[in-house]
Amino acid sequence: MKRIPQYKPDEFKPILNLDWAGKAMLKKGLNEFFIEPLQVLSEAKTPSQPHRKTVNDFVFIKKGFLEKMVCSDTFSVQENMMILLPPYKIRTFLKNTPDIEGFYCHFSDDFIAEGPGLKYLQDILSYTEVKNNPTLYLDEQHQERIYLILQQMESLYAATDNMELLRLYLFTLLGEIRHFIEKLPKQNLSINETIALKFRRLITSQIQNLHAVKEYADLLNVSPNHLNKTIKKSTGKTASEIITEALLMEAKALLSLPQYTVSEVAMALGIEDISYFSRLFKKHTGISPSDYRKGIDLSY
């Protein structure tokens, strides 16, 4: 089984109880591209369950604000800001103001594979990964241009099935974001910051298999003590705390899939002792995995 839920866009309804597929039922390529005004969030059920998507997605805020948790970090996205996330990041939509305005958009890597879009996206994601913050506060010039592009994209998407033209607009949008980033001061990472970045990457790819600080320290060629001190200085949390948080996020994401038993969730996380998994989950969340799942079931 997959270790986390990977929602395709036509399966998004359980995330916020919003039927994107229904709203775009006459559209082709929903799993490749979609855009919609953020006002739809007034109908959303929040907070969402932790989840991953098969697409990149971003939100641009023109008015109001929203909060998202990415892995175990919470980010506030306010007016003239945007947050862009790749598929592999676990995200939880926490809340938003009732007056929120702006745009939500998602797109697959395949949708922008031919042309400059994928390179633009990789440059943007590399920048946000290094600063460990997926949000961008845009200057006035880029705010205005990006907002106009998004208005055109939403209008075009509502009126036509011309995906090729939408792809070109998306290239322009990603190019504008990259242009904004290129004007920002370059980030030169210290040795400890580099270790912290590599640790975060390892957590994303190895949390299913590795749960001990020593295992990550060995991969990074440092001592467990040095890794703990480095991560504590960088994040305010110990390496052990980060590992536990990542493990719990994975567990919550998997528990949101009703087709898997609690035992299967534990096994997918590399934990063979089901009792240990239940104790660990309850210790850090206050409820058992079964009760957590019941709470999910009652909310939909």
Q: Give me the secondary-structure category.
A: alpha+beta
Write down the overall mean pLDDT.
86
The gross shape turns out to be globular
SSE order: EHHEEEEEEEEHEHHHHHHHHH
**Any low-confidence stretches, pLDDT <50, length ≥5?**
none
Characterize the largest beta sheet: strand count, sense, and whether it forms a barrel. Answer: 5 strands, antiparallel
Radius of gyration: 20 Å
**N- to C-terminal distance:** 24 Å
Count of alpha/pi helices? 12
What is the percent of helical residues? 40-55%
Total count of strands? 10
Strand order of the largest sheet: 2-9-4-7-10
The fraction of residues assigned to DSSP E strands is 15-25%
Verbal overview:
The protein is an alpha+beta fold. It has twelve helices and ten strands. The strands form three sheets. Strands 2-9-4-7-10 form a five-stranded antiparallel sheet, with helices on one face. Helix 3 packs parallel to helix 5, helix 6 crosses helix 8 and helix 7 packs across helix 8. The two termini are 24 Å apart. The model has no long low-confidence stretch (mean pLDDT 86).
Q: How is the topology of this model organized?
A:
Layout lengths: L5 E2 L5 H4 L3 H4 L9 E5 L14 E2 L2 E8 L2 E5 L2 E5 L3 E5 L5 E6 L4 E7 L9 H14 L4 E3 L2 H20 L3 H20 L8 H16 L6 H8 L3 H12 L3 H17 L6 H7 L5 H12 L3 H10 L2
Parallel strand pairs: 1-3
Antiparallel strand pairs: 2-9, 4-7, 4-9, 5-6, 5-8, 7-10
Helix pairs in contact: 3-5, 4-5, 6-8, 7-8
Q: What key attributes describe this structure?
A:
300 residues, alpha+beta, 48% helix
Brief sketch in words of this structure:
With 300 residues, the protein is α+β, with helices and mostly antiparallel strands.
